[in-house]
Amino acid sequence: MFEGPLRSSIHRFKYRGEYARGRYLGSLLAEAAATALDGVALDLVLPIPLHPRRQRERGFNQAQILAEAVAARLGVPLGQDLLRIVDTRSQVGLDYAGRRANMQGAFRSGPGVRGASVLLIDDVVTTGATMEAAGLALLEAGARHVRGLALARGA
Question: For a pLDDT cut of 90, what percent of the chain falls above it?
């Protein structure tokens, strides 16, 4: 659950740019992924992308840093074949229907995922609307399987 020290660590990483904290959180997620996905064949690890404007503002993509650790630990290539093409508003404060509507059509994937079994990585999953929209874009581009993994589950 997304509370206490984990919540504080994620917020400090995401909003204060504490990169060392992000690398540590990535190592925790990577170990959890290795355990949870033991024996699952994966072809590609992809971070949930930020829109370019938001990434410029923040200076980094937190999901990218987490995905780098997971890909390295699993020995699976880290891809970039998912783009956020709509500059969506923040999901904070939106209910499930609002989040789902906000994410509709937000992602596009390239042909590099065709036939691949993909693991999507994000920092926090609340309703699953972002993972769902990204996963649909990957499936529409020809991905064979899409799984999602996040550091925390929001309330």
Answer: 42
Query: pTM for this structure?
Result: 0.90
Residue 141 and residue 119: Cα distance in Å, rounded? 15
Task: Please tell me the distance from the alpha carbon of residue 123 to that of residue 25, in angstroms, as a whole number.
Answer: 9
Predicted confidence (pLDDT) per residue in 15-53, tens digit: 887 888 888 888 888 889 888 888 889 999 999 998 988
Record the tokens describing residue 59, joined without a space: 């200076």
Specify which residues 124 forms β-bridges with: 152
Using left for φ > 0, alpha for ψ between -120 and 50, and beta otherwise, residue 119 falls in beta
Digit-coded pLDDT (tens) for 77-107: 999 999 998 888 777 778 878 888 888 888 9
- Give every CB contact of residue 51 below 8 A, 6+ residues apart in sequence: 84, 85, 86, 87, 88
How far the first Cα of the chain sits from its last, in Å, is: 7
Distance from CA of residue 5 to its chain's centroid? Answer: 21
Residue 80 is inside which H or E element, if any? none
Residue 1 clears pLDDT 60, i.e. is over it:
no
Report how far apart, in Å, the C-alpha atoms of 120 and of each of 16, 42, 111, 134, 143 are.
Answer: 24, 11, 16, 8, 12
